[in-house]
Structure formats: C-alpha cells, structure tokens
Amino acid sequence: MGLMRLIGKRLLLIPISLFILVSLSFLLLELMPGNPAITIAGDFASDAEIEKIEESLGLNDPLGARYLSYLGSVVRGDLGRSFFSDQPVLGELRERLPATMELVFLSLIVAAIVGLFLGVLGAYYRGRKVDKATRGTVTLFQSIPDFLMALLLIFFLFYLWSVAPAPVGRLGFSGVSVEPITGFLLVDTLVAGDLNAFVLAGQHLLLPVLALGIVYAAYFGKTARSTMATALDSTQVEFARACGLSEWKVVYYAFLQARTPILTYGAILFGALIGGAAIIETIFSWPGAGSWALTAILSLDIPVIQGFILAAGFVTITVFLLLDVLILLLDPRVRL
Amino acid sequence: MSDLGKRTLEILKRFLSVLRSQPAIGVGLTVVLAMLLAGFFLPLPYSPTRPDPLNVLQPPSSLHWFGTDSDGFDVFSRTIAAAARDLPLALIGTFLSALVGVPLGLLASTKGPWSERIMRGLDVFQSFPLVILAIAIVTLMGNRLENVVIAILIVNVPRFMRLVRSEALSLRESRFIEAARAVGATPIRVMRKHMFPNVVGVALAQTSIAAAQAIGIIAALSFLGVGVSPPNPSWGLMIQTGVRSITTGDWWVVVFPGLAVLIAVAAFNLVADGLQMRQENER
Fold first, then answer.
1. How do residues A76-110 score in pLDDT, each as one tens digit?
2. ipTM surpasses 0.85
3. CB contact under 8 A, A313 and B127
4. Which alpha helices (H) appear in chain B, and where do they start and end?
C-alpha cells in the first residue's frame, strides 16, 4: 500500500519539475547575450535585414508575452521550429532521441559489467596486488577523455585490424533502411526479421559503445569498490562466513547490500550521458540528440536547444522515478 | 621565530608527512609541476604557432620528434606549449571554484528551509551534462578565455557546495561544535574556526578531482573549437586536427596531445586518490 502512495507522490512531482525545467530553459537562454538574428543573417548583413529576421522570429516582443506563448505551445506539444532547418523540433527529437538512447543504454551495460567486475575484484582483494592492478586500471580509464578513447579505437579496430566498420553513422553507406518502430535499430531489425541489418547495426554500435562503456566503467568501478569494501566488512558478511557459506555466496550477499548506491550511480550516469555522448556522436556521425544539440548550441538555434533541454530533463526525471521504484522494490528498508 | 614562520613550518612538516604516507600525491604533484615548467620554459625546436607548409603529416623522426600535422605544425612543440595554456586555465578555474564553493557549502549547511531549497535547485542544475553546460556557457557568453574559467566555475561550485555541506551537516552534530556553541561562539566563528579545518581534507581531494575534470572539459571545449583561438596550441584543438588523419592511419597527430591530456588528468587523479586514501585511513 505504502508503495503505491509513494509512487503516486512521485508521479505528481513530474509536472511540477517539468514546469520548472521549461521556465528555466526559457529564462536562461533569454538572459544569455548573443543574438541569433545576427548569426542567421551572417556577418555581412545590414541592420535592416537583421531587424527583419528579429521581427520574424518574434524576438522583439516583450519577455512576458514570449514566455506565455512559449509555455502555451509547449503544453500543446509544439516545441517550435529550428531557426535554421525550419524542421519541427518535436519531429526531429522523435527521430534522434532513440538513436542516443540506444547508444547510451548499451554503453551503460558495458560500463556496468566492466566496472562492477573491476570494483568487486578490487574490494575482495583489498590492499593486495589485484586491488592495486584494478585501481590502476580504473584510474587509467578515468583519465582518458571519451573522444580520445573513440579515436584510439577507430585507429586500432577500424584502420589497423578492420574489425569494425568506418565511423559513419548507424548503418554506414550500406543503403540498408529499417522501418522505425521503436527507433532502437537492434530491436527494429529483429522485429522486421532482417538479420543482415541487425548485424550491420550491431557492428556500427561496437566502437561508440566500447568508447563510452570503457570510459564510464571507471565510475562504476570506483563506486563498486568502495561500497563493496564496506559491505564485505559488515557483520552480516562475517556471519555468513561463520555459517560456512561458500565464498561465492558471501560475495553475492555483500553485493545485495551494495547494489542500491551502484544503481543510483547508474541512473545519474544515464542522465549525464544523454548530452555527454554528444562528442562521441559527432565523431561517429551518429544521428543522435546530443550532436544535434551541440550543433544547435554552436549556432544559437534556440528552439532546438530548448527542445533538447526539455527532452533530456524529461528522460532524467523518468529514469530517476524508475530508480526510486526499483530501489523500493529491492530494499524494503527504504519503505519504513 | 615569528608566529607566521612557525605556522608555515608546521604546515610544511605536515605536508611532508602526508607525502611519506601517500607517495601517490607526491608523484602526481611532481608530474603536474614538470608539465607546467616544461610548458613555460622548455626551449622548443620549432615555433608552436607558425606552420611549415612544406612538411605536412610527417611521421615522427629525428627532425620532428612527434611528427607534424596536416597543416605542417610541429606536434612536439605544440604539445609542450599547450601545457602553458591548458594547465593554468584548469588550475585557476578549480581554485576559484573551491574558493567560492567551500564557504557557500558551509553557509548552506545551516538548518532551515532555505538551505534545503537551494540544494534541490542545485540538483536540477547538476543533472545537466557537464560538458554540454560548459559549451553552452562559453558559446553564449562569447568565445573568450575568461569565459572558459567561468564555465569551469559554474560547473564546479555546486559540487563543492554539496560535498562541503554534507560533511558539515554531519559535523554539526558532533560534541565539539555543540561545546563551541555553548560557550557562545557566533555562527560565523563556528564555521571558520571549528568546521572549516575539518572539511579542508575532502575539499582538497575534490579540488584535485575537479582539476582533472577541468582538463577534460577544456580539452573537449577546444576539441569543438570553443574557447580557443587558433593557431594558439591547445591539446583538444590538436586532437581535433588529427581526427581527419586517424582514419587514414596517421596516428601521431592525435596520440601525442592525447597522451598529454591523459598524463595530466591521471596526475590529478593520483593526487585525489592519495588524499582520499588518507581521509579513509584517518577515520
């Protein structure tokens, strides 16, 4: 019973958080200096031309009026059109967000597997050689910027060993097209029964997922080591050992204690990666939301920036809601 | 000896004992210092800002130790010279962040609805991806170096605040703070004399982590052409130049500036690890 009420309370918070998010993104972009009309018109435009563009974008209306009209259109599901491509922001988000989500989701799985392996190993052999080796590996992973990791992977796996395809988007220049259902290529190709396209999509995912996965494994590794170290020191573990349980079982019980903070960390990383994958997307010509927002920021395409902030915020809020529910289900102590 | 001299000597002694128990800190600091000194004082074989168009994409040789890039810049000279620009920028940004964030965090640790509200506000702010935020700030405020420092500041101050606040909240419950309050110390005095010395450790570790991140952020910014003015050397910008060449196998343009970033970030992470280990051992 208490569970449903807690979830209901959280659900009620979502519209409020979204309202704050919309207002903040509107205000922040308003307050920032920089005139998109000048950017659109180019450096050699006359004042009259700039004024005409300002007028057509509605930049001359008073702030309050623009805020209200923006709020109104967001509620109606209209996020505006890009200043430059004139495409509706919502439509483009629908195309690009799944590409990013697929990348982020798989990267986090790789990161979790690699990171947990290193972290648990280090915590179990605390202070010994294995611990030093895993800590060193984690520090190394943490010190490589993700874009450098991507470039190194491209050099070795694409150029030298030809294991992976060239870094050109989700399917390359293969001419293969996939009917979008979920937007997740791996799912859509399986649903369509197109094994060829499935393999192709997987190959193109390999390098960007590895690059992000290895770099972000460091975060999982650090959290896992410290929480597992505490868990392995606890009296429960001592008791489990005293009962004569096998070491595998003991580590498993310790992991049950440590999983909540690790899950929380995963959720935080998920939110961070939606935009954080932007540079990787740029390097791999990935048609995702991050690289789209990046271009928009560099060219002051305000409707696109606002749309991205809203989408990223919405996904983050949803992920945190799911996390809360998951933790409630996994850890009954929180309910008390 | 004057009072001030005695105190510096004491701090120095403490510093040395820290170095002895956690050699990683010393190694990290030495590496950073060496990179800084090299960046400022090492005589360079070629000009880092003037390309040689006759020698483009030369592999590493005795003439060009790290090779040349697609514009004919000497990669060695630029990698070294970039340290004099990227490292101070990161250091200034992080120190300013600590300077602003630590006192604010202490202030936000006072009980009351406002401090709770401010922290919730920071939550929203922090859920935004770091690099994107930094790029947005520098792009929208103008492509200048000061704005890179401001971006690092805006990204880091909330982190310092959160960390110091959570430390301070648990400190507030302890006996000696209660005692200080009981004898009539003002809230400001409690913060300055009793709480600050107890959060210095975690704040220092966070400074080191933040410096490592700042290097990554600066590299990412200049990789995207934000906050740099070519032909001035910057590691991220150099890596960007190499993107075109790496798919055709000319690895040196990316690898050497990449290694420089890696070494700098790893050095700061080493210092942070050492400081954190010390904190753990003290508890």
1. 878 888 887 888 888 888 888 888 999 999 999 99
2. no
3. yes
4. 3-21, 23-41, 75-107, 113-126, 130-141, 145-172, 175-182, 187-189, 196-223, 235-246, 252-282
Domain positions in chain B are 23-39+73-282
Q: A300 CB near a chain B CB, below 8 Å?
A: yes
Q: What is the DSSP letter of B45?
A: S
Which CATH code is given to the segment(s) B23-39+73-282?
A: 1.10.3720.10
B163 close to B173: Cβ distance less than 8 angstroms = no
> 3-state class of B175 per DSSP?
helix
Q: Which domains are assigned to chain A? A: 95-287 (1.10.3720.10)
DSSP assignment string, A33-89? ---HHHHHH-TT--HHHHHHHHHHHTTTS-HHHHHHHHHHHHHTT---B-TTT--BH
Find which of B246, B265, B268 to mutate to test the A interface (most A CBs within 10 Å of its CB).
B246
Q: Does A66 touch chain B (CB under 8 A)?
A: no
Check CB contact of B23 with chain A, cutoff 8 Å: no
Which residues pair with residue A81 across a beta bridge? A88
The alpha carbon of residue A113 and the mean position of all alpha carbons in its chain are separated, in whole angstroms, by: 17
* CA–CA separation, B87 and B75 (whole Å): 18
Q: Looking at the complex, does the CB of residue B199 fall below 8 Å from at least one CB of chain A?
A: no
